[in-house]
Amino acid sequence: MRHKLILCVLCLLFAVSPVQAKELDRAELNFAAALISMSTYGAELNLLARQWLQDLGWVVDSHEYATALAEARVHILAKKLPDDEQIYVLAFPGTERKQDALVDLRMKRVVFAGQSPAEFEAAAERTDKEASMPLVHKGFHDYTQAALFSEKIPDFANLTLGEAIARDLRNHPSYQLYLTGHSLGGAAATLAAARLADLGVRPSQLRVITFGAPAVGNTAFARTYEKRMQLTRITIDGDPVKAALQSLSNYVQFGEKVVWESHLGRFPHDMTLYLDEALRHYQDAHSEQDHPYLVTGQRRQVQGLIYVAPFDFQVSDLLSADKRYMERVARGILNSAYTPIVFGTTNGDIYQEARKLGAKYILYEHFRGQRIKKEENNFRLAMEEELYDIDGNVLSFQSYSTTARTLTPIEAVGYLVMQAEPERSAKLKGTT
């Protein structure tokens, strides 16, 4: 079954014309990559990112491959764009399991060479290592090999997943592959792109975006592969992980470096902070009237206009600067989920304006946010949602709350709106 799922996703991608070598908007691309990287983690609250991606029309296919050296996960994501092209992403999770930590600590250097999975492994077992050879972190190498080159797939003529992807990209030289990941995942994405380059994929076809990723290899590795992929390394100022192996193992970073300043006083390596900053950058660069490629979904057709009353936000002064981001996240999730929908602006009679617009439903969203005592950077956020028909009959009332311990306050608002989606959608009569 697993092989058939992979086959279906890859066939879908290459049957519907994947994204060709064109430039997508950078802020949108970084936001989509951050959302995807966040979704690769297994924590319950990261369901926010996964559900958000699904609502935006992304198909997600997750797989795990184990060898004696690593237990690797790889996620294949696909989205059909408005112009009928298809974007194709490989994403790798960061460190979250004990086995991942062991991979991180396996810092011995191995030779990085070869043009087939067998040659990759043979090179890594070599003992005659010199500084002039491309050398990489053994743990990261083992993880990448397990994820892409450890298991032959009968439906792909007994090629491994990595070989099948490389073959299809070689056969379609105008297509692009995006690779992304956070921390360990970013290291795996970089090495995966290097392996695909060794298998004949062109530099213009390999677009890598990493978040807080460490250096993966020595100077010889960096000089060999820096022109064989398009690598963007996004870091938050003060993130210690990005430079850890540079000082410990004399590894070298390469690619375009982008540095963000965090707006929150937290450990600057958390993926939640990278997603928070990516979302801020995206909103700052785009108006709500823009029609993005990557973060617009297939909306559910509702039989009747939904009128959303102006949001009621009552938050601590410490959160007031982020209120505009919170409001836009809530609007964006609702707007991506349903059509027809309109967001009210009146401070007067809500029902009068809703009837004037021909609405069938009225939705109220109330948000509260206060700092938790004795926890400097933590907040409790709560949402109450009321859904009425135009005659004032209550269709649903929901209340949810969460803390910003594992999410940022902006992300927490999105999480709360998504928590209410199943019951809300059940009460809204629609066709799809």
Task: Tell me what you see in this structure.
Pfam families: Lipase_3 (PF01764). With 432 residues, the protein is an alpha/beta fold. It folds into two domains: 12-284, Alpha/Beta hydrolase fold, catalytic domain (Rossmann fold); 299-428, ABC-type transport auxiliary lipoprotein component (Rossmann fold, 3-Layer(aba) Sandwich). Helix content is 38%, strand content 26%. It is built from 15 helices and 17 strands. The strands form four sheets. The chain has a seven-stranded mixed β-sheet, sandwiched between helices. Strands 12, 13, 14, 15, 16 and 17 form a six-stranded mixed β-sheet that branches. A two-stranded antiparallel ribbon has the order 4-5. Helix 3 crosses helix 14, helix 7 packs across helix 8 and helix 12 (323-337) packs parallel to helix 14 (409-419). The two termini are 28 Å apart. Mean pLDDT is 88; it is low at 1-9 and 12-17.
Helices and strands, with pairings:
Layout: H1 2-15, H2 26-39, H3 47-55, E1 58-66, E2 71-80, E3 86-92, H4 98-105, E4 109-111, H5 117-124, E5 135-137, H6 138-149, E6 152-153, E7 159-160, H7 161-171, E8 177-182, H8 184-198, E9 206-211, H9 219-225, E10 230-236, H10 241-249, E11 256-260, H11 271-285, E12 300-308, E13 312-315, H12 323-337, E14 338-343, H13 350-356, E15 359-371, E16 379-389, E17 394-403, H14 409-419, H15 421-427
Parallel strand pairs: 3-8, 8-9, 9-10, 10-11, 12-14, 12-15, 13-15
Antiparallel strand pairs: 1-2, 2-3, 4-5, 6-7, 15-16, 16-17
